[in-house]
Design brief:
It is a single chain. By secondary structure, this protein is α+β, with helices and mostly antiparallel strands. Helices cover about 40% and strands about 10% of the residues. It has 5 helices and 5 strands. Strand 2 and strand 3 form a beta hairpin. Helix 2 packs across helix 5 and helix 3 packs across helix 5.
Length: about 180
Amino acid sequence: MTTPWSPSADPSILLFAPVPPGAGLTPGSISPLPAPTRREQAPDADHLVFGAGAEAHIARLIGPVAADQAVAAIVPLDAGATGRLAALERFTRWRGGAGNPARLTAQKRRRIGLMLRAVDARAAGASHRQLAQALFGTGRVAEDTWKTSSLRDTSLRLARDGAALVADGYRRLLTL
């Protein structure tokens, strides 16, 4: 089976290659990768999955890598560099047994849910006031003057950011 994992589409995909000669690293100071949960061979590269479920780490091997060979992480300096570094930090923590913090915090997950609800409401013809009433309750919206309400500003931002998220497609979620 050919995997659709592409580092250009998902910056959380780790890139590993054999440690290059002349890297100045002490032989034996770098341990090899742990045994993967799953390994898939594709025509262009091997893909490894470490762990399972939401805490799984996906890696792409650049070049042949023996099971006991030391590897280096490759981090292209592109728009996804910060996401790649965060993914590498999560993998390093997982590998060291320090746990695997979630990619999305509870607050980010809640905000994404609100943004998608805002997009759906606006697509169905709801006004920003109706959106705010649905998200925050009619009573809270009625408490303030609408034009200067913080809930108005919040509903505007949720609708704007949700529309941008939808326009960028699902791949934008991978960078959060």
